[in-house]
Amino acid sequence: MKVTFEFSDSPEVVAEVNAGESLMRVALDHGIPGIYGDCGGQCACATCHIYIDAAWIDRIGTPEPGSTEEALLEGAPADVESNSRLACQVVLTDDLNGLVVRVPEGQ
Amino acid sequence: MDGIAETPAPAIDPFDVGRPELYHKDAWRPVFEKLRADDPVYYCETGRSGPYWAITRYEDIVRVDSDPATFSSSHLLGGVTLEDKSNVTFMQMDPPQHTAKRKSVTPIVAPKSLAQMEVLIRDRAAKTLDALPRGEEFDWVDRVSIELTSMMLATLFGHPIEDRRTLVRWSDTITADLDDPDSPIRTEAQRGEVMREFYLSMLDIWKRRREEEPRFDIVSILAHDPDMRNAPVEEITGLFGLFLVGGNDTTRNSMSGGMWGFAQHPDEWRKLKADPKLLGNAVSEIIRYQTPVIYERRTALRDVEIAGKTIAKGDRVGMWYISGNRDESVFEDADSLKIDRPNARQHLSFGMGPHRCVGSRLAEMQLRVLWEEVLKRDLEIEVLEKPSYAFSNLVRSPTRLPVRIKA
Lengths: 107, 407
Prior knowledge:
The structure holds two protein chains of two kinds.
Chain A: E1 2-6, E2 13-16, H1 23-29, E3 49-52, H2 54-60, H3 68-74, E4 84-86, E5 99-102
Chain B: H1 20-24, H2 29-38, E1 41-44, E2 52-55, H3 58-65, E3 71-72, H4 97-103, H5 111-130, E4 137-139, H6 140-157, H7 164-175, H8 188-211, H9 218-223, H10 233-264, H11 266-274, H12 279-290, E5 296-300, E6 304-306, E7 309-311, E8 316-319, H13 321-324, H14 360-377, E9 381-383, E10 388-389, E11 398-400, E12 402-405
Parallel strand pairs in B: 2-8
Antiparallel strand pairs in B: 1-2, 3-5, 4-12, 5-8, 6-7, 9-12, 10-11
Helix pairs in contact in B: 5-6, 5-14, 6-7, 6-10, 7-8, 7-10, 8-10, 10-11, 10-12, 10-14, 12-14
Protein name (chain A): 2Fe-2S ferredoxin-type domain-containing protein
GO molecular function (chain A): 2 iron, 2 sulfur cluster binding; electron transfer activity; metal ion binding
Domain 2Fe-2S ferredoxin-type (chain A): 1-107
């Protein structure tokens, strides 16, 4: 399956990935710039903040109100939008083939 | 002393890691090594400010720091230091209140602001380095670490740049340990006086900024924030205090710690010179190696088991970042500075979870720019003595580091 990472200042990267992995893990494995995953994917640092493309956000969903993910996103350096997620909390499933996400500027 | 029973001096618990002497003498490594191996969630009954738990392994620290519903930062329970304090900023709040309050300060450290600040920071780093003496001894802490971080603070606060050392004095007084023989103050009342001086000066700037067009400093950003504009005065001054200490002591200590680290590991400096692309990772590694903030405290909101120990509701829990950053199960050869360490970014120096350092990107940028400018000048810096460290259990702060730049 494929995931597309878009950037504000460089061409997009299309990554060939396997279902079952987290979007953060996949981004690190493909050396996607701007996604750091400092805490190793434990939903503890907000350095894997991404924007989910509008066409996909309903399928993926938004963070639970009051969740740690929501609190972390609010504290992240790039602006939080209604389609903001932490990539470590998005597990890739077969129905997400073709997913498009945008990497925030200067994370 | 006739007729008065003498109380015997309480025995010192060698595993009381809250003793400032341990960091003043730089003697903490073996103590934590033993705790991590034998008793990683240790109950110290004789802490200076009462009993507390010492969490010393990496994974347990991440667990505590990431679970604010169990481990509270609330000022109502004593806040984030072993000594109960009643300061109120978002640092001493739990979500969701924390979340909303923290948001009001994030614009100052947002990517756009950082890009704007980098030019200024680089210019100052360049001038500071160019003004250093060649071929004679000077103190790196005073001439570089304090100089650069105090200029940054003055910019953040819109404080007159020529009066930047006043900001340092305020910050050092706020964090001073009263048991420190060299402390600038002896009593909490004296501390209160100095803090008042700081707050009044800031409130003066605050009043002016409220009337002016928004500009680029933290006082202005807060003065124009719809929530903060009419916040109680203690909340505003509390935030100034948080930014003052957060922006002063931490980056300063990493600037000193990096110098010392490279002196201890000259091969790493050669490696960086040969491949400057390693600098981004090197900065994270310096921050891990130094661990400028030694610990943070939480208070248990319920009985909870960690590593086989039951922490009771209401207990003080110290997350010893300095120990987590030396955990060999995560960081191999953890006492060494290794600029290409693959997981350097996973250090705990910024904390983890919702309270993770809000200024982390600014700190990293200041450190990166400093070392870029040192590299650019190809300075050969020789460290002449071991650093001295502050008498503090909270900040690991080199107070003096004599160096000489080869002429």
